[in-house]
Please model this.
Amino acid sequence: MATTLDEAAIARDANRRIRRSDNIAGWAFAGPSVVIVLGLSFIPMIWAAYLSLTDSNLLSAGHFIGFANYAALAKDPMLRQAFTNTFLLALMYLPIGLAAGLGVAIMLNQKIRLIGFYQRRPRDCCSGSS
Model:
């Protein structure tokens, strides 16, 4: 009975070591790309947040002024116009882009002569295999 428990414990420990080594190998391969992606996304966001709290003009060192930039933004009369323009652009562009994409998908799904050429070309030119 004792040998069975010892064998089970040894097998469990071996499985843990294998899983741990797999995790280490996985992070060794994925780690550099994860660091690069996080660095290219979070560092600029943190820097932009810091700059928004200073009076910097990007050519000289700024002084910390807190939320004064945001208070000035709230009082700016052009803010409402900027939000209106953004809303109108989205309202016009999104349905047009959606309809165009749906139209192309419907056309490529039709049974017409030489449709295989149009359906296969993007995959053939962009894949590494021949």
